[in-house]
Amino acid sequence: MKISELTQYLEQIAPLAYQESYDNSGLIVGHPEDEIGQALIALDCTEEIVDEAMQKGCDIIIAHHPIVFAGLKKLNGNNYVERVIIKAIRHGIALYAIHTNLDNVLGGVSSKIAEKLGLASHAVLRPKRNLLKKLAVFVPRSHAESVRVALFDAGAGAIGDYDECSYNTAGYGTFRPLDGANPTIGTVNEQERVEETKIEVIYPERLERSILVAMYAAHPYEEVAHDIFPLNNTLQTVGSGAIGNLPHPMSELDFLGYVKEKLNVKVIRHTKLLNKVISRVAVCGGAGAFLLNDAKRSGADIFISADYKYHEFFDAEDDIVIADIGHFESEQFTQELLLEIIQKKFVNFAVLLTEIETNPIKYYV
Fold first, then answer.
1. Is 219 labeled as ligand-binding?
2. 248 annotated to bind ligand
3. Where is the signal peptide (predicted)?
4. 327 known member of a binding site
5. Cβ-count burial of 310 within 10 angstroms (0-12 exposed, 13-18 middle, 19+ buried)?
6. How would you write the pLDDT of the chain (365 residues) with one tens digit per residue?
7. Which residues, at least 6 apart from 142, have a Cβ–Cβ distance to it below 8 Å?
8. Domains contained in the chain, CATH given
C-alpha cells in the first residue's frame, strides 16, 4: 500500500494537530505516494534500527520519538541524526514519528501503561482545553435533515461515547435578495420569510475545514447564515497522562513490586513512602513532572512517570508518592501499542517489532 494509507489511519487515531508545539511528528523521510510492503516499529530511530530495517526488508520505520526535532541545516553525517537520515534516504526507507500526538490521546501511551497496571476505567489526567468549537447554522426546515447528516458525516456532533449530537431550534428567518442575487427561495427585491431550523453542533477545531465544506455543499442557500464559537470546554479524550483505580488496593511496597513486575522495570526511584494504601494511580509516559499537581488534584496516591530531577522530588510534599521508572521503561510498551493499532486495521500488512533495545541508559545492578 501507499505510505499515505498507513499514515492517514495513524493520524485518525493520533491527529498531528494534537502534538505539542516543540514536537516533529509525522512523515520525516519519504513521499506519501511511495509504496510500502513491510514496517518496523521502534521507540527510537537509530543507525542500528535502520540497519535492522534493511536486513528485514522493511521500507518504513515507525518510531515514537522523531529522529529530527529541530531543523537540520546540513546533512554531512557528522552526528547520528544526520547519519540516520542519509542512510534512510540512500536505501529508500521512510521514517515516520508518532510522538506527543500519541501521548495526548486516550488509548495512547499513558493508557497503555494504565492497561498494563490493570487500572479500571482510566481517564485522561489533564484534558486539553480550547480544542472544541460550536457551529450554529440556519437552514430552511425542508433541508434541515440533509444538512444535519452532512455535518455528522464530516465529524461534527461527537461527544464522548456519543455521536450525531445536535441541538435544534425552530424559528423563522427573513431576507431580501438584492440585484445580482440568485436566491433558492424568494424574489429579488422582495423580503422573504422562511421557516428555518437552527442546528447547533460541537466539533474538534482540526475538523473545521471539512465540516464547513460539507455544510456549504448540503445547504441550499446561496449565502449560508452561520456562527462559529470557540469553546473553553475540555476535550476529555485528549490530553496528558492517565488516572485510574486499582481493582484491589495494595500497600506501597507491594505496589512498587507490582510495578516492577508488570512494567518490566529494574529500578524505581521514589519519594519516601507514606504508609498509606495505594488505590488510585496516576501515570504519564516519558517526562511527566508537569502533571504532579494534576495527579494530586485527582486524588492519586502515587504518580508514576520518568525523568524526575533531584529538586522535583521535593514537590511531593508528603501528599503523594512519586515513582520514577525511567523514560524508556515508561514508553517501552508503545511499540506493542502501535503494533496492535496497525494490525487491527491492516490485517495483511507485515509489521515487525524491533529486536534492538534502544535505551541509552544502562544499569549496574
1. no
2. no
3. none
4. yes
5. exposed
6. 999 999 999 999 999 999 999 999 999 999 999 999 999 999 999 999 999 999 999 999 999 999 998 888 889 999 999 999 999 999 999 999 999 999 999 999 999 999 999 999 899 999 999 999 999 999 999 999 999 999 999 999 999 889 999 999 999 999 999 999 898 888 999 999 999 999 999 999 999 999 999 999 999 999 999 999 999 999 999 999 999 999 999 999 999 999 999 999 999 999 999 999 999 999 999 999 999 999 999 999 999 999 999 999 999 999 999 999 999 999 999 999 999 999 999 999 999 999 999 999 999 87
7. none
8. 3-99+333-353 (3.40.1390.30), 109-127+239-325 (3.40.1390.30), 131-231 (3.30.70.120)
